[in-house]
Write a structure and sequence with these properties.
Layout (H helix, E strand, L loop, with lengths): L1 H9 L7 H8 L2 H28 L3 H6 L11 H9 L2 H32 L5 H11 L4 H15 L6 H24 L3 H9 L4 H12 L1 H17 L2 H6 L8 H10 L1 H4 L2 H20 L1 H8 L8
Helix pairs in contact: 3-16, 5-16, 6-9, 6-12, 7-9, 9-12, 10-11, 12-16, 12-17, 14-16
């Protein structure tokens, strides 16, 4: 009898968790989400794939069957694109503007984000709201004021006239992302450094900056993509052909397609799109970690 009582006492009754039941019952949900994610990725990749395939075809093939595959792949379109327009010069112009914008945006956003997060001062909340408010303004509204200011400063038809507005346009979102990541860093890090008599600059440079690498990579990628692909303001601001960036150069090449054809235009577009994809792939992990708030240290 005592043995039966011991067995009853040691018997464990396991009650399934309702959440586990729902997860087990919804096993198809992750599969459906995966399929939808792959379908969306294929939909986003298809334009670049189609563009690349068209760049290896002739104009006769493109006009005869726009959605077909290249029967005899050829690099003639790329040769024609480089012969018709100075693409290397346009590429260097875009690279110069974009790298300068990236450096300015990352540096300014890191400093402003740290100040708004860790160095509280009167009006800091209003400053943050002002930056966030700029995000809701449509870009065409700012086109005329920015152009008039640049004209008064005498920087129209210069690369500086592009770098300044491009960098200013990337600040609001970049500052918000940087501040969010600085907020996730425990205050005890700075307090421990202050006990060791570290200055504010040393705390920022030696402790805080290494912890926001993913956020800095995200801001750099966003600044790269926005400035590399920008067309409207560059078209208004730049007038000299030797200062053209790639978007304006491709538009100029497209206007001359009656001489060169469609295939060289597609080839030039591929040349323009490749650096963006390389930049995103190189910073993909940091980009995802930053958006999921996994890149900052949490207390």
């Amino acid at each position: 009898m005592s043995t039966q009582l011991r067995e009853q006492e040691t018997r464990v009754i396991v009650v399934p968790n309702p959440r586990q039941r729902r997860r087990q019952g919804n096993g198809r949900a992750p599969r459906v989400a995966t399929v939808l994610a792959w379908a969306y990725a294929a939909l986003c990749t298809y334009p670049l794939l189609w563009l690349t395939l068209q760049s290896f075809r002739t104009d006769a093939e493109i006009l005869g069957k726009p959605w077909g595959l290249p029967l005899r792949p050829t690099f003639d379109a790329y040769a024609a694109a480089f012969e018709t327009t100075p693409l290397p010069q346009y590429f260097l112009n875009s690279l110069l503007v974009t790298v300068a914008v990236m450096l300015l945006v990352v540096a300014c956003c890191a400093g402003a984000g740290y100040a708004l997060s860790k160095l509280r001062f009167p009006g800091s909340d209003f400053v943050l709201l002002a930056f966030i408010g700029v995000l809701v303004l449509p870009a065409p509204i700012l086109l005329l004021p920015v152009f008039l200011i640049s004209s008064d400063l005498g920087i129209i038809n210069t690369h500086i006239g592009l770098i300044g507005p491009y960098a200013a346009g990337g600040l609001p979102l970049g500052i918000f992302l940087m501040k969010t990541h600085f907020d996730a860093i425990p205050a005890s890090y700075a307090e421990a450094a202050e006990i060791d008599r570290a200055s504010s600059w040393q705390i920022f440079r030696m402790i805080m900056l290494p912890l926001i690498g993913p956020a800095a990579a995200t801001v750099a990628v966003l600044a790269f993509m926005s400035s590399w692909n920008e067309y409207i303001y560059a078209l208004v601001s730049i007038r000299s052909a030797e200062l053209f960036t790639l978007p304006i150069g491709i538009a100029d090449l497209s206007a001359k397609r009656f001489l060169s054809g469609y295939a060289p235009v597609f080839a030039a577009m591929v040349v323009t799109a490749v650096p963006v994809y390389i930049m995103f792939i190189a910073a993909q992990r940091s980009f995802i970690r930053s958006l999921t708030m996994g890149g900052a240290v949490k207390g």
